[in-house]
Amino acid sequence: MALVPRMLRPAILIRRKALASGVFGDSLMWKAIAVVLFGRSLIKKVAGKNVEVIHVTALSPGRFMTIETIKPTSRRARRKLAKKGTPAPTVKEYRATSRAEAAAIREHRRSQKR
Asked: Do 109 and 70 sit in the same domain of this protein?
């Protein structure tokens, strides 16, 4: 089955009609549709996930880097920690742990070369 050309797809036609008749025209219905269509993508851009840089380093030739993600602590796990009286780990603590692990790995590699 052949694809419909981009300019004739229903989503594109509705966006174009909402822009022409609603934003630049007088139709209240198409203005409401334009707000829904364009507002949703705008909110996603503004309130989307924010990237947080935890560690930056320069690599020399022949070196490699392992990148891992940290699972966010679930609500259930936070409750269990709160019952025990242990606070949930913060990003600062995660950073310190990752730096300590990286230092231990470096030290281990240096000792293997000797």
From this structure: yes
